[in-house]
Amino acid sequence: MQLHIKILISLILSFLVGLSANFITEGISEKPEWFAFLSEACSFIGTLFLNGLKMVVIPLVMTSIICGVARIGGEKDFGRLGLKTLLFYSLTGLLAVITGLSCVNLFSPGIVEPEIQAQILANQPQGENGKIEGAIDNANRGMKSLLEIFHRMVPVNLFKAAVEGQLLGLIFFSLLFGFFISKLPSQARDQQTNFWESLNSVILAITQFIISFAPYGVFGLVTPTLMKVGFDTILVMGNFGLTVLAGLAIHTFVVLPILLKLLGGISFVRHYQAMAPALLTAFSTASSSATLPLTMQCITRRAGVSKKISSFTLPLGATMNMDGTALFECIVVVFLAQLFGIEMGWVTQMTVVILALLTSIGVAGIPSASLVAIIVILQSVGFPESAIATGVGIVYVVDRLLDMTRTAVNVLGDSCAAAIIGKSEGETGYYEQHSA
Ligand code: ASP
To answer: What's the CATH code, domain 3-435?
Structure first.
């Protein structure tokens, strides 16, 4: 059975188990013992899988970029490839925020009946283990200004960046490292390239091994979330959630397919099919960084894009190109303005667009990371502090489910970039091999 079918079955099972467990225990303040046991057992498996993926992310990102750039750094292709990647990422990001902005203005999910508004505002949680407060602290400390994103690109201490999982800094260093390998005299260059290529092969083999556990990991990750969230919460925030899902669906089934067809002559059905294991894993882990190993495997083995293109575009995309996140940020900010009755004219909305684009570059590819960026945007457009705290609390209720969906869109956007850029560089024979 193919990997994505296995993952899909495990997802369906986790929806059945998670939502049933939530339904059976609904209204019981003291949850039965089996509930805690099931939740912990699933989380245990899920965390093992997630840890495995995270374990390979840093060596995978570094070795892939170093190999990719060392291979092409000396050629004149390099500048062109870099430019194409940046242009494509900016284009899809811009289209995503425009889609988000249109949806939120069209559906106006924040304009609700006064009683419902009161209910939503009253139901907002005070944060789980202080996570919301933590996020606000983080935003205040870590991303005081947007320029901070650029500071993080050039880390003072490479090892500290690695320990803290600051991918942006590692990417920048790896780009430089690969580039200067390509400038070495030929003997030293070959030595370096061989070393990094063989290291990269080992990491890929480990990655492959971890990925084979995806169906179990996915079940372990999704079930506890659904046990906790249940139907009710999903319903209260229905309109907001539907607006986000509508925006993400338009980006997935209209914008990206048109780009694939127009710019690469690629059928989106075949591309999405090839990427299915990565998309399902992104959905389950809500982390584009943790999904990166699968994204790279699917794009090379199932889609047939060369390592040269994918090892350059994908690690960059996993942190810098987040279409789903940018779209989500836009919707949240305007939604909250509608909910709190804060006037938001077109000029402010355009500022939100720019800020959403910029902050989505700096958002880490980990679960709920965009909440921090949202706080930064809300502060920048002058939301009162109390509204920010309440607003983020409200969004947090349904964030996990939306995070899963937008992460899948983030990963999809990166993969489309790799395929289109590959095609534009004259690559052929895509989607012929379905080996994994
Ligand atoms: N979870 C998202 C990702 O990893 C980031 C976010 O939007 O919170 O791609």
So the answer is: 1.10.3860.10
